[in-house]
């Protein structure tokens, strides 16, 4: 991780009695030296801003709602305190060894997709290496029997997707009665219309101890106000943290928006890919993730690309789990350096060397856009995101312009015009997040009108405390050296001016590489 990229990120904390942040991992009293050694083994030298604040808060036993940009280390921010807490209480679970026994995990981590659950499981295993803490993953689409067998060997931390967990509870194979730690990764997704009923059932109707008898940790890069309100049902006197602006994208990602009609999208995509290919910059070091709207669209585009000599694979919800895993594996190892995906790959996935995210079809919501482009520009590295914008994306224009402004991106004039002339205002980003001048927004600070010029700290004046790192406006030119070492040239970007109605930026896509990253 390029830690210096994150040092200036402002962190706002609100709530009562906020524990002090740390600057080094060595300041944190982890329950076991093994955990501290594992952090070193993972080459985590310094905590990221969200980790500096969130780890002390969670270690103090407080409930937490935390919002931090994609790729900023949220997984470790909830895993370290959970592992440490389990070790501290020395509450190793006694239920294993008996094949018919009910597994009673001490911690439950819920995530929205199978792939993300597996990734969290892998990370948590690294963090708990040689600590004795047992971690099991349970997700749908794979045979349940193997997962049940894994539970029989004992479980301290269960990482699960909601559907499979409910199935296991209903079969009488898992009980939540001993849960002391509940973490929801991608918490806003877990509480939106798709997942909320299932999550509510798990948390409120399936023996889970009530909020005051467990610790609840909610994390995401986006946190709409209405979802924050819903989430408060699960929390008790929580602390709210926002590293950077709630729902913002990192300025490590260079964002490009091109006007492309539906008819021209495929040709435009192949032009981009040809440009990268002629420079020899596709492959393991320059993975390209292409987002489309539909599962059928993903299959069709994958086939079309393969026929044109671009080794591609696709991932979406209609593929069986084995196919999904195979697709991800072949993308990760560069065998097929282009992955065509639906939103199933939009959240949480941490694949190094994704150099370029292309929104072939833009999503309807700006939050989905934030998560999608967040598959690049992770852990302090730079990345590129290109979006194909057409007439039908007009409702997104206002939110897109606002987001790009926040991330100090160059915005084409034609897009600004769309934003000004389109009546439909997308998700109403300004209202949801309190305007672009605010660093964070805890819904408990009350409703207010769009007040983009107000001082952020006044939002917390009554019953909350605010603390922050000094914020200096990010310098977008700073990213160039970190992505350029092997022949990459982004210089065309900053010198380029956009013309109204133009669909061409003269941007040199031949040089998009992920080399220079660790
Ligand atoms: N303190 C640290 N030092 C170095 N690397 C770190 C540190 N914390 C996390 N990382 C690495 O940063 C990458 C991104 O972390 P993680 O996947 O937790 O991000 P995230 O904030 O959860 O992103 P998303 O919002 O997309 O889910 C991972 O590869 C992780 O190993």
TrEMBL record:
Q: What class of enzyme is it?
A: hydrolase
Q: Which SMART domains match?
A: DEXDc (SM00487), HELICc (SM00490)
Domain Helicase C-terminal per the UniProt entry, residue ranges: 268-419
Reaction(s) catalyzed by this protein? Answer: ATP + H2O = ADP + phosphate + H(+)
Domain named Helicase ATP-binding: residues: 55-241
State whether keyword Hydrolase applies.
yes
Offer an example of a GO molecular function term for this protein: RNA helicase activity
The text of the family note is: Belongs to the DEAD box helicase family. DDX3/DED1 subfamily.
Its protein name is RNA helicase
Q: Write down the species.
A: Forsythia ovata
Lineage of the native species? Eukaryota, Viridiplantae, Streptophyta, Embryophyta, Tracheophyta
